[in-house]
Amino acid sequence: MSRRRTCSIGLVVAALLVGIAPGAEAVRSGPPQARTGVVVSTQTALDPSVQLRRRGRWLVDQHGRVVIVHGFNLVWKRAPYAPPATAAGFTAADARWLKRYGFNGVRLGTLWAGITPEQAGVGDPGYRDRWQRVMDLLAGQGIWMQLDAHQDMWHETYGGEGVPDWAMIRPAPYNLLPPVTAPFPLGYWTPETSTVFDQFWANKHGLLDGWVGAWEVAARWWRAQPYLMGYDLINEPWMGLEWPTCLTSGCKASYVNELQPAYERATAAIRAIDRRNVVWWEPQQFSGGQKIPTFLEPMAGERKLGLSWHNYCPEVFLESQGLPFGDVEKCWEFSRDRNAHALEQSAHINAVPMMSEWGATDNVRAIEIDAAVADEHLMGWLHWAYKRWDDPTTADDAQGMFADDADLTTVKTEKLRRLVRTYAQAVAGVPKEMSFDADTGDFRLRYRPDPRVTAPTEIFVSPLHYPSGYRIRVTGGTAVRQPGRMVHVTPTPDGTDGPVIVTIAGP
């Protein structure tokens, strides 16, 4: 998403009733015949060993170390749905910037609209090349990549993006009049947009076939991509006309009848091509901003799933609107609830969890709270967003990290200080505790070493929090400073069964 507050939504119902205006007709009325098995790809074989795999609740690297991801969303929502090689887009300077500040992961918006723009199942090599340029830059800096079939409100017809023009089929009787549009996220709630999603889940017009076919194309393109951490099947799935029950009770029937079957079908299609990489499932949209249950179930025979979940505290939205009852300190409780629920849901479906969206604000206190709670739960995260990129579903510039996307020196410094953290990027064992104080720079890590892992634990040390240098203390191991603000920790030879405790602080 972008305005990212789909979840505060009790306020928005009234706005829906007054804020609706007619928009333009869709360019095309229907798809060609779907051919989900046809793929265009010229990718040469790459070594797939430098990718992340699921082990229990963790992501692990090729050395068997637990990887904790801190990074950003990179989603270009306007055609051609990939960032250009310009200063305002994404260049080698951006990849170096991410590396310099310790960000080791990204969520890339590889949109259905870009993958198969003209016909179901037929990939566009030009789109692959646009993203491959970015992926090569990221892989060159050792940055992990999650591929995200991003969508907001289905298509440009409704003010959003996500699906190709051929998948934009306006349902009757709404197609007798110009489409109703409303600002994001209100457009979801119009009867027409919700009906379109219901038809998608029901595979009317072969739309679900087309989505699965796009993932088949993407898996063939990128299954051997170095630093891949898997496929996020769909961003913030909207469950259609039953959305009121999704808001209030979590809409279990929608999971059973629509979301679960679609996810299992897409996962099976990917597994026919790629048996190794993580396939990420997202809960229905409202679960990112309301304390409601989710109802994903295990998939028979599938052990390489991820739970890609979102965390948007409704209090931040209320406060941003100047409403007197918004209290950002309540986000402590909300974020803890959502983190705990994500751990429970992911364990139930045999998946690794990751907080793949959060933030979307310049409220540094809210950012500080969510990042601290993620540390409490040893949760990897991808912040929304790196750059604003003229996002059509965003009403302001609070989403990105820069006042000017073309100038990296315009970074929002207070926001950056909360996001740049000393943290363990790779743990040679099982993490048990991690914390970081964004005011003082005090850091603590406790883990149980795994004697089978010979690579060191790697800790990134923030370049923003120790102006006079820093000191390291290790119990049960030794630490060696490395270039690039890294610290390598190895357990003492006679203490591999006991915990290793690392603290980093100013002098």
UniProtKB/TrEMBL annotation:
Segments forming domain Glycoside hydrolase family 5 C-terminal: 421-500
Pfam families membership: Cellulase, Glyco_hydro_5_C
Record SUPFAM superfamilies: (Trans)glycosidases
Signal sequence residues: 1-26
Keywords (A to Z) from UniProt: Glycosidase, Hydrolase, Signal
GO molecular function, one term: hydrolase activity, hydrolyzing O-glycosyl compounds
GO biological process, alphabetically ordered: carbohydrate derivative catabolic process; lipid catabolic process; polysaccharide catabolic process
Transmembrane region(s): none
Family: Belongs to the glycosyl hydrolase 5 (cellulase A) family.
Name of the molecule in the record: Endoglycoceramidase
Native organism: Nocardioides immobilis
